[in-house]
Amino acid sequence: MSPARGPPVATLEKYGHLQRQVELTRSRTSFAERLIPRTRKKLTPAEKVARKDNHDQHRADLNIALGKVIEVIWQQAEALHKVFPQHDTDYYFQQIIQNAHSTTSSRKVSLWNTFIFGHKEDGELEAEPGEGSDPLQGAPRKSRQLRATWNAMSAEEKIEVTKDSVKELEEFCATKALAI
User: Positions of the region Disordered (predicted)?
Assistant: First the structure.
């Protein structure tokens, strides 16, 4: 029989601290929860039943209200189908629901975006064809050059350079917002 072999003593010394860790019996709480200890009032069985009944009544009222709203939306979809018979009522219902999730507000056009837009329109950000030119490297390099040019301008120069392109970019953004 061979003698029992265990890990070398150096290994036990090296990883000994891992065996001495304190195990936590509860999951970690966030910092905010640790600051303020929460005290909770225990509910009696009667209070639990009352709370459950209140919750069930609220859920029933909400479902009735949502049903009425869906009926109104469905009526609007039917009206759209009568005006535009190319699609069925389900299509218009889905379009109305989807438009509720679309963004309705947008940021105003910045001078920097207008400056970049003007140079895109001029084709300056396009990669130059030639030997060894990588189209993915051309635009970032030119953007850095444009940024250096932009930072060298004064506020009046920036306004003067971008005044013609602001209307174009606003029209472009409005057209893009209407695109489906």
Answer: 124-145
